[in-house]
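Sharing a chain and its predicted structure for anyone who wants a worked example. Both blocks are below, sequence first, tokens second.
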Amino acid sequence: MFALYNLRASSRVAPLRHLHTATSAPRFNIAFDIDGVLIKGKQVIPQTRRALDLLQENKIPYVLLTNGGGMPEAEKADQLTKKLGIYINPDHLIVSHSPMKSLVSKYRDANVMVVGGEGSACKHAAHDYGFKNVVTPEEIHSVHPSVCPISTCEARAVPWTEKGLENVGKPVDAVMVFHDSNDWGRDLQLCLDALVSKDGKLDTIKDSEQLHNTKQTVPIYFSNPDIVWANEYPVPRFGQGTFRVCLENIYQNLTGQPLEYVTYGKPMKTTYEYAESLLDKIDPLPKGPDGQPAKRIVYAVGDNPYADIAGASGYGWNSVLVKTGVFRTKGHENHHLHPATTVVDHVEDAVRWIIAREMKSK
């Protein structure tokens, strides 16, 4: 079962001939970024549907690998299904915080502050992963409005029936930034409060000597390092990586020490290992004479050289850089620091180039 299934009754793109036979499927996979490749802001990029039809017709297994997220995978998949008019299997979707499931074994019963996203969406994602005690900056602000008196978000009451409000007064054992903050002032303040607190108690702060001479005790995790990302606006917008840079500078200025943190998402190796494990389930490779699976051929299609291309190249995947998002250039000039295997105009060209290259190699 592949990642997407066409729900539309419209005409379909004719398959390229001889890519596969009735008894064999293509022995390569594609990992697509979403923002700047398939979608830009709230708009579907025009060539997206034709590209996905080509994959469907040629039975090419693929996954969606994005530094976006901010909600449970099932909810994100449903959102994409409605937007694209094509079924998105949530089991074949990797959002930035998907690999953070690996942290559950360490923090299952800990009190975790989950930052980012709209409302309680990220909190629900964390609960789905298995984190039992989750609190959000919004919940803390609703109970203690004075934690950020200049917040642009009104400290509205959060229903007590929502699990987690009872965790507001408990020490924070870890901070996990699941998605972009929707209130940087409030969230920077509360992240910093946790980092400089005495044993995670948000209403405390270490004394000056402790701040400058003791090791950071509350760990912080970020789901992606993107400094910028692309939406409908003509130039890229700040991403979660910029939020992290701000927090790093504030922490260093206050303590004289560098912030210690762990980052997931592209271009981090952990994200590609997670994606490869998913592809092993979706499209198991046949074993060779030595009993070992054949080497998997994967093409990553992305718009951000620093995330999509750097990550793919570092992991040994092929890469295709499109010009519909962060990366802009005249002609097909490659990126000077993180060159892709090839540069094309849009996602349909990417799929056609990949298919043609694989046909030539047969």
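Comments welcome. The chain has two domains: 4-96+267-361, 98-263.
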